[in-house]
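pasting for ref. prot 1 ->
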Amino acid sequence: MEEKLMKKSRIKYLGMVAAALLAAAPITASMVSTVEVPVYAADQTPALTDVEAIRADYANTIKQGNAQIKEYDQKLADVESVKGIDQVEIESDKAQAESVLSDMQVAYDKKLHDDNVSDEPLLESIKKGRAQIGEYDQILEKIAAAKDIDTVAIKDSKDKAQTYIDNVQAKLDGFNAAGIDADAGALQKSDAELAGKPAGYIDGYRQGYQLAANILNFSAVEKAAKADVDNGTKKSEEELGVQGPLYTKLYNNYYDAIQGVYAGTADGKKGQKQDLTGKSAAYQRGYNEAYAQYYQAPTKPVTPTYPTIPGTTPIQTVDTLTESPASGIAYVTAQAGIPLYSDKETINQIGRTLTANSSWKIFGQVTNSAGTIVAYNLGGKQYVKASDVTLTNPVTKGTFTVHYSDHPTWGIAVYNGALKVQKIIPAGSRWVTYGKKTINGQDYYNLGGDQFARADYGSWIAD
């Protein structure tokens, strides 16, 4: 991403990547790592340093997770090392050694007192006897410690930790792959092209490409290409050369994809598919997606789309929409979250979901020809459907303070709505809450962003 393409977008992704590896139950505060959750700020500009920060966060999370697994392995090894050792026998051997050591010490002291001579061989035997007793003590300590280790729980926590690490690694791999595509001016991969990849890889890829698109202002390139297609013109290689190789590659890909969408839409309506031999990959992709979308539902209004990249505007017939400045706060109440769109028609999703119980500043509103508000602009040309949000705060806020009464110094687990552990928050930390929810008969405080903490693991006061 060494090259800026025009004016930068005004969206910034702050505090990416989740907290360090978690165990299934509360763990000691020394194992806790606090990392901020993702937040969009509509008045800031992303930079390459943000990309490096995200990569560093991913790598640090993986590093912490591997360290946690190493601790689990050590505990399991400690248990394994004392298997088959007879504690009674060790205690008996230690008692005998202590008795012999005592006799040797008495003999040594007597000779030293009576003859004023140090019996060096005897002294060396005493030292060895003490060392042997020390070894017995270490073995007995390991046996005692092993009794307190729940190997089933440790193995379960290790498996969960490994699953989490694998997911974070997949996200990092997807994030890096998106950077390579963006640097090459390639279009964002479609769902079909990402099929078979782990969910974490897909999330990381979409996140990375979206960030790259914002930094490099891909939407401006798409807009220029679409305008040229509509006008029946195309920039010359000389004109494109002034903008640089990345702009040239991206412009040509957009141009071909949009042409493919137009042709695919027309052919789909007729049910006659053209031979795409010799056409570019971008043209074929736009054509096939538009053709398939229409042909699969010929009796419904058609909204064909070319590759899902921020700023993409599909061919469509829609009501006249007008956007005007507005202010206020939009609240998300749907538990599944709601999608963001790149156009005021709210047709093209940009691959990001606003989570339940989150709130967002409104910068504009979109009305149809009847004057009805149909969408809101949350800044940076990011739109949500008006029907997906409410302008009235649906929850009463409060503050939750972590206090696990059985072990006050321990952190506690934070879960998602499916009760999957997301991170650990430290003892004594304070968190804004967005309501209360009962899951499987247990009360949880909603910490926002599909994050829940058990109500009985702390105290709560209303704001």
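and prot 2 ->
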Amino acid sequence: MVNGSECQLAYDLRTTADGGAEADAERTFDLTLHCLDRLNELVAPRASDLGAVALTSFWHSLLGLDGDGEPATPVFLWADKRSGPDVGALKEELDEHAIHATTGCVPHSSYWPAKLRWLRRVHPATASSVRHWVSFADLLALRFHGELVTTVSMASGTGLLDVHRAEWLDELLDRLDLRRDALPRLVDRTDPLPPLTAAYARRWPNLAGVPWLPSIGDGATANVGAGCVTPDQLALTIGTSGAMRVIKRCDTFAVPADAWCYRLDRERIVLGGALSNGGNVAAWIAEKHGDGDFDGLTARAATLEPDGHGLTVLPFLAGERSPSWNDEATGTIHGLTLTTDQADLFRAALEAIAYRFAGIYDALADIAGAEHVIHANGAAILRSPLWLQIIADTLNHPVVALREEAEASARGTAICALDAIGARNDLSPPLPIDATYLPDTDRHRRYAAARHRQRRLELALYP
């Protein structure tokens, strides 16, 4: 990345009482334009040093385009749960185990099959007006370059890709009454996009003379940026949500029963699990019960004994993905008393999310090498030494924290771009490490018992 070229703008996620989570496509596009305008200015003194412009984007988004290529729907995000009832119908209509084994995705509201079924059921007129179904990043490719394409990486997060062949799964498309030409053409991360259209080339002259590379899924680039590109390197990410992933280079493979499988490119798969709840839960408690003082709550929670609050928490404020994939799950706090305070709630939530990561870790144990490392990244986790220690203790394994300014997804995107243009011959440059958190045996025993208690509560509520 060109030093000093960072530009970040916040976007507003629109949530609804019935479980919706969406963004306005034009508003999000305008923010992207503003970022690129600023980037064009910032790189001007070093424009001759540029090798490429590369993109990463959020996995799982769904956007409908009309016959003119204009947005016909909002951008539906992974957290949109309104298609939950359609997941059950899909499970009845399809062999869910076969779908998971082929696409790497279980039937769930995060993915396109359920969302498409919901849209046709609830908004049939809107659905019938759609000519192409795309990810938000595909809209950028269409408008900036005049071509509707998506990478196998982005496509692998839709639930419609045969993750083994890296091709759209025609059998599933037929069952969903979806034409292949309604989806973008598949390319790989190393395939340059066509040149910028004339209008955008004039708008960004400092960016117009280099290759533009198509978008890669943000989880895959986070792994690359965290230095986790082989089976003995696990990336643990906590931002708004959470994930734990491992990358493997292989020709043939079986999708593990308790993990999803996406792609970085045609040569590498990404195996892992994702939590719908991460920093969003910690932020919710800080906002609702701690006057927004995240650091103050953290300091108070750090003085408490591990699992010393008497609480059992199911942190499902945004539903749940791995490992239970339960769209109906909601948050639960068991064990409240008159002595429970904000710090108890805060620490209990951090610990509860760590226990969910332990379930993903168990699923990846057979995939990771015996002498594996765990690299932590993401703003929510890297700003909290307490949370890093809790996770190390829960997993009973050292956790290496990256420097917060490393921005793993952006860094990984840059590394992939350098590889694509031949400026590097590997995806493993030196890693910016901040600290290593070592597990404590006694704390691990306490957390193991608490994790078992959490599991019992989950089974009691969601048998």
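The radius of gyration is 22 Å.
The chain has 17 helices and 20 strands.
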